[in-house]
Design brief:
Layout: H1 9-13, H2 21-30, H3 41-52, E1 54-56, E2 59-61, H4 74-87, H5 103-106, E3 112-120, H6 124-139, E4 143-154, H7 162-168, E5 171-177, H8 180-188, H9 200-214
Parallel strand pairs: 3-4, 4-5
Antiparallel strand pairs: 1-2
Helix pairs in contact: 2-3, 6-7
């Protein structure tokens, strides 16, 4: 689920998500005549959401979208919370891509998280931001079964940042190195699905996920 208002995860994955959930709700709110006679608004909304779901190879994909104008995100976040609760009944795993920062946690769009990956860049500032995210989950009493740190675009060994990493109090799942192949695809606007199996990023992510899920986290 792409829950970032700046929705572009579909492009990175090489799929085309034409519809988003917020737009569906807005259109229905503006014109209730769209709801067929004999069908409830909730039933029609569920039908439209199912229609907007993209069936890709090995996964399904939904885009939340963003409210138009400068208004509050409260309604969109309430909708996201409802979607997560409903979809969790039909899927073994739900992966949510949130916007960078702490807003998605402070809005409590997810109150129970099995596995939280906190991604930081290769800097002390990034790791201190990660620490604030960890502290916020505790402050808001969000139930997190397991949390892991991931450091992205690492140019070298992480020994220089070991002190900052130790302060976080969570395990380091792994590091993703700077990858020229990723940079080339990004510049060309191509999907990351085109990465080769020899990509440094692919190898690092496969290793990291194998270790995280092997230990039952």
């Amino acid at each position: 689920m792409d829950a970032d208002p700046n929705a572009n995860l579909d492009q990175a994955l090489g799929i085309n998500s034409e519809n988003n959930i917020v737009s569906i709700v807005d259109e229905m709110s503006e014109d209730l005549s769209r709801v067929p006679q004999g069908m409830s608004k909730a039933g029609y909304l569920d039908y439209q959401i199912q229609q907007s779901l993209v069936e890709a190879q090995g996964f399904d994909f939904l885009t939340m979208g963003r409210p138009e104008g400068p208004g509050c995100y409260c309604a969109a976040n309430n909708l996201l919370r409802m979607l997560i609760e409903n979809l969790s009944k039909s899927y073994a795993y739900i992966l949510i891509d949130n916007e960078a920062g702490m807003e998605h946690l402070s809005r409590r769009t997810a109150r129970k998280i099995d596995l939280l990956f906190i991604v930081s860049d290769y800097s002390a500032v990034g790791l201190r931001s990660a620490k604030r995210i960890i502290d916020l989950t505790k402050e808001l009493k969000i139930k997190v079964k397991a949390a892991h740190l991931v450091i992205n675009r690492v140019p070298q060994e992480i020994n220089q940042l070991k002190t900052e990493i130790d302060k976080l109090g969570i395990s380091l799942a792994g590091t993703i190195p700077q990858d020229e192949e990723v940079s080339k695809l990004s510049v060309a606007g191509n999907s990351l699905s085109e990465l080769s199996e020899d990509s440094k990023s692919i190898k690092a992510i496969n290793k990291m996920c194998g270790e995280v899920f092997q230990d039952g986290s």
